Amino acid sequence: MSGRGAGGKGLGVGIGGKGKGKGIKRKGPSGINLSNYGTPKRHRLVLRDNLKGITKPAIRRLARRGGVKRMSLTIYEEVRIVLKKFLTGVLKDSIAYTEHRRAKTVNAMDVVYALKRQGRTLYGFDQ
Fold it and tell me: Where is the composition biased (Basic residues) (predicted)?
C-alpha cells in the first residue's frame, strides 16, 4: 500500500506533522529523506487565453446595461482588448497600494483607491 488515494495524489500530511510547517526531518533506512512522504504533488497552473473567459453573452449583458440595442459581430474582440487594457491599469495601481501596505493580498480598498486615482471614484466600499 503506497498511501495514495484516488486521483494519484498523496495523503496531504507528512509523517512528522499535521500538514502545517516543515515538520520533522526524517531519514529512512537507506538515508533517504522521508520528510516529504505523503505530501501532494504540486501541479503547475497552465495559463491559457483568459480573455476568452469574457464570454459573448457577458459582453452583451454589459452592453444592454449601457443601453446598446444591437451589436456587430466584430465588437466582441474589441471589447475584450479594451477591457484588458482597463483592468491592467487598475490592477497595476491596486498592486502598488498593496505593496505599499506590505501585504500580499489585494483587498477592496486597494481597488477603490486605484480607481479613485484614475478619476473613477467608486462609492459604497468604505472601511
Answer: 19-28
Residue 33 dihedral angles phi and psi, to the nearest 5°: -70, 120
pLDDT digits (tens, 9 = 90+) for 54-76: 999 999 999 999 999 999 999 99
How many Å separate Cα 52 from the centre of its chain?
16
CB 5 within 8 A of CB 11: yes
Write out the three cell numbers for 97: 497600494
Domains of the chain: 1-43 (no CATH), 50-117 (1.10.20.10)
Percent of the chain at pLDDT exceeding 90: 56
Amino acid at 96: A
pTM of the model: 0.61
